Amino acid sequence: MGVEVAVEGLTKSFGAQNIWRDVSLVLPRGEVSALLGPSGTGKSVFLKTIIGLLRPERGSCVVGGVDTASCSEHQLYEVRKLFGVLFQDGALFGSMNLFDNVAFPLREHTRKPESEVRRIVLEKMELVGLTGAESKLPGEISGGMRKRAGLARALVLDPEIILCDEPDSGLDPVRTAYLSQLLIDLNAQLDTTILIVTHNINLARTVPDNIGMLFRRELVMFGPRELMLTSEEPVLAQFLNGRRLGPIGMTEEKDQAALAAEQAQLRAVTDTLYGIAPQLDPSPGLPPRLAVRRRKDRVMSALHQFPIPTQRSVIASLDAADRTRYGIGAPA
Ligand SMILES: Nc1ncnc2c1ncn2[C@@H]1O[C@H](COP(=O)(O)OP(=O)(O)OP(=O)(O)O)[C@@H](O)[C@H]1O
């Protein structure tokens, strides 16, 4: 059963450089969330702040009753055991084979006998589809396999929360699709809270239950996928649709004149991606994701607060059983 992460008013700077300010969001337990944002907006800094590797100037991040923004080093050591982290490059030790890489946290943090270490490592490697590759060195395998090995290592201490920093970086579209499916399958099997940092539009549209967006030192929005995928918020709409038109520029921020000219053009653009894309289901044979029902109940109880087009899209996406459950009549 995953654990909730409650972030409130978080602000982080390095010297005079403010990275982001006043970030508040809740990663609901057992749900998959994604944090999007252009390069350099501080997504990796955000992950590191959640686990207390970096300390913010203001705000709190409560995980299992502990505030990782202000707790003691000892408390931090304990609360970090709740986390499994997949770093951007997999962060594997080049001189160790995959078995030893995956076993590393178990040998470092537990006193399990080697037979138990072996059992757990083989189980996690099977979970990520790496059975048979135990003796390979990181330099001998593909980028996709390295990511999966990093994921297996993130799983060995049975984390309640998995943080994935750009799990798709350097992967081709097919491997990214496999990885997206793997994250959904892991969530179905483990009911773990997952936060994914990504630039990948496809992954963002089909994997997470909740989506957040960092831009210009602020969290633009964070909410359930139905709300975010139908949002007219310009930054979010530009990013999720991969458009050049919008506030996000090639370098940093566009000037106002360029922005106004593009907004005029934008009205003429037909947006084929707009709307609630179907979310990935677990692979056949796996249990359903427990988070789906919990989240749908939450979305339906907050439905009246959403913009009308979002409400319509949500209702249109309900099946007959959902309509009965939430007391909504058959479609006209
Ligand atoms: N330890 C540090 N000391 C000083 N500045 C840092 C440190 N870590 C990150 N930064 C700065 O914080 C900013 C945000 O970096 P971060 O890596 O979090 O961005 P990002 O959104 O993850 O980018 P990308 O998508 O390209 O990986 C950058 O300007 C970076 O130089």
TrEMBL record:
A GO term for molecular function: ATP binding
CDD domains according to UniProt: ABC_Org_Solvent_Resistant (cd03261)
Keywords: ATP-binding, Nucleotide-binding, Transport
The keyword Nucleotide-binding appears for this protein: yes
SUPFAM superfamilies: P-loop containing nucleoside triphosphate hydrolases
Domain annotation ABC transporter: ranges: 5-241
Residue ranges of the TM segments: none
Name assigned to this protein: Phospholipid/cholesterol/gamma-HCH transport system ATP-binding protein
Species annotation: Kutzneria viridogrisea
